Amino acid sequence: MPAINVSKALDQSHASGVFDLAEIPLRELNQALHDLTPGSNQTAWEVLNPKGSHSVAVGVDQPVTIDVRGSVGYYCGGMNDGSAITVHGSAGPGVGENMMSGSITVKGDASQYAGATGRGGLLVIEGNASSRCGISMKGIDIVVHGNIGHMSAFMAQSGNLVVLGDAGDALGDSIYEARLFVRGKVGSLGADCIAKEMRPEHLALLQDLLDRAGVTGVKAAEFTRYGSARTLYNFNIDNADAY
Amino acid sequence: MTYRNPPTTPRKSATFDDYTLSEIRRAAANGIYDIRGAGAKRRLPHFDDLLVLGASISRYPLEGYRERCDTSVVLGSRHAKKPIELKIPITIAGMSFGSLSGPAKEALGRGATLSGTSTTTGDGGMTEEERGHSKTLVYQYLPSRYGMNPRDLRRADAIEIVVGQGAKPGGGGMLLGQKISDRVAEMRTLPKGIDQRSASRHPDWTGPDDLEIKILELREITDWEKPIYVKVGGARPYYDTALAVKSGADVVVIDGMQGGTAATQEVFIENVGQPTLACIRPAVQALQDLGMHRKVQLIISGGIRNGADVAKALALGVDAVSIGTAALVALGDNDPRWEAEYNELGTTAGAYDDWHEGRDPAGITTQDPELMKRLDPIAAGRRLANYLKVMTLEAQTIARACGKNSLHNLEPEDLVALTIEAAAMAGVPLAGTNWIPGKNGF
After folding, report:
1. Can you give the CATH number for the domain in which B207 is found?
2. How far is B207 from chain A (nearest CA, A)?
3. pLDDT computed for residue B83 by the predictor
4. What ipTM score was computed for the predicted complex, to two decimals?
5. Which structural domains are found in chain A, ordered by start?
6. Domain-located, residue B437
7. b or e along A49-83 (b: 16 or more beta carbons within 10 Å of the residue's beta carbon)?
8. Alpha-carbon distance A94 to A178, whole Å?
9. pLDDT at A241
10. In this complex, do A136 and B153 lie within 8 Å of one another by their Cβ atoms?
11. Confidence at residue A22, expressed as pLDDT on a 0 to 100 scale
12. Source organism's superkingdom (chain B) (predicted)?
C-alpha cells in the first residue's frame, strides 16, 4: 500500500537526513522538520529534487542545516527561526519571508519580495534579487551579491539591506528606520529616502555584515548609505505631493 | 397701508446640508481630509428593511421555552485538522491592540469565551491579554504583518488572511502618532509617535494564484491544523468569494461598508464598498455555484446589532456573523455616562468616532494609561457576554417562530422585504407581493 511505502521512505530518510521530494510529499518533509526537538541529533538535512516546489522548509524552529539541491518556488524558508538553509539553485518569490532568525543562502538568483517582512537572521542572495527585495523588512539583514530590482525596501522598518551591485528605481520608498547600503548605482530613490553620511559605526556594521555573508575583496567604504529623511513620519498636507 | 412682501422661511439646501457645509469649512481651515473611526453612518438598505414571516397554517412553530433550537456552528471543516466549534454563530471581529487598549482586548476575549465564541486579533499582533483570555482566538494575517511570528501563528486557533475590510476596501490601516505608545511601537517595529499608515496590499503576494500558494505556506507552517479564513471588504462579493474558495480558504469573511475601522478617511468610509445586505446573496450564490455552500463557511459583518439581524443574515445563507462596533458599545463605548467629556471633545455620546485620537472617555480606543483604567475588563467582558446571550436568544425566538430547530435552518423563504431596494439586494419578495426585482425578467 502506498501509505506503507511512504512511511518506509520516511524511516530511511530520517536515518540519512535526506528527503527526496521526487519520492516523498512536501508535507512529510515539513512535518519532520517541525517534529524536531531541541537537542536532536538530526542536525543535517538535505532536500533533493525540489524542482520549484513551494514552501520548502517553512516554519523550521530548530538550529539545523538544510541543503536544498536545486531551485525552489515560492516562500522557501518562510518564517525560518534558527535553521541554516542553503538553496543550491535559484529561489522563487518570497524566499525567507518573515524570517525570525537563522540564515538562508541562495546560490543563484531570487525572485520578488526576497526577505519580505523579515524580522531577524541573515538572507544572502549570491546572484541577483528581483523587485521588492526587503519589502517591509522588520529587522532582517539581507546581502545581495548582484543587483536588486525596483521598489526594494519599500516601507522597510528596520534591519540592513546590502547590495554589492546596482539598485532599481524607487529604492526605499516610504522607508522607516532600515539602513540600505548600495555599492553600485541607484536607479532612483523613493519618497523620503535619501543618501546619508557613512559614519564609523555604519562602516563597522557593514563590514561585519559583509564578513558574515562571506563577501571578500569588497570594502565597506565603497558603499553609499541610504535611509529615511523622516519627513513623512507625521502627516503634513504640504508633503502630499510626495506620494 | 404699504404692501409688504410676504416673508419666506429660510431654506437650507438638501445638497449643501449643515454637515456638508461644516466639512467644507473644516477642510478649508485645516487642509487635511477628515479621519475618523467606525463605519458608514449614512442611511443604507439594511436588515431593518427585511421582515421574518413566522409560522402560519402551512408551517408550525416550535415552543419558545421547551423545544430546542441549536445555535452551534463549525468553522473550517474544509481542510483544517482542527476546525473551530462555536456555541453561537456570532463572533467578535478583528480589532487591533493599538487601536484598542490592552484591557479592552482582554474584555473582548473574556466576553467571547464566556459565550462560547471566538475573538480576533488585529493589525498590531497578538497580545498576552487576549490570548490568555480567549478560548478561541483567530489570528489576523495582514498586509503590515506587524507582530507576525510563527509562534503566535501556531498558538492561534484559526488564521484570518485580511485582504480588506468593509470600512475601506482597498485601503490600509492607519494609527496616528497619539496612540503609538512604547508598547505599540515595539510590537509594530516602528518609531514611537509617528503617524503609521499600513500598506493596503500584502507585501509578498498579489492575486488569487499567489493567494493559493500563500495559503499553502501557512498550512505547511501550521501543519494543516488551523482553519484559514479569507476576509474581504464588501466590494465584489461574488467574485471575491469564488476566488477565495478557489485559493483554498476554509472560511470566507465579508465585511460590508457599515463595518467599523479604527481610523480612516471619512470619504473612504462613506463612499467605497457596498452595504452588508447587498453582499450576502452574491456571496452565497458564488458558494452555491461552486457546490461549496456549507462546506466553505461564510461569515458576514458590518452593522450587526441584534438577534433579528443575526436571524435574517443566517436566513440569507451565511453561517455566522461577526460584530465589532456593537461589541465595543457593549463594553461601554459611547456611553452617555461620559456625556460631559464627550461634550468637551466637541461631540456627544452616540456620535463619538474620533477613535484615532486616543482620548476615548470610555477608556477603550486609547493607549492613555489613565483613561485605560476606566475599563474594568472583567465587568466589561461580562457585559459583552450578556449582550451576546441576548442576541442569541432573540435569534432563537425568531427561528422557533419559523418552526426551525436550528438557526441554520432559517432560509430566504422565511423573509420578505419592505423596500424594492432591499428586495433586490436580498433576493426575497417585496412584502405583499411575489415580486423579487431582477428575477424572472422583472
Report:
1. 3.20.20.70
2. 14
3. 98
4. 0.93
5. 2-242 (2.160.20.60)
6. no
7. ebeebbbbbbbbbbebebbbbbbbbbbbbbbbbbb
8. 19
9. 67
10. no
11. 97
12. Bacteria
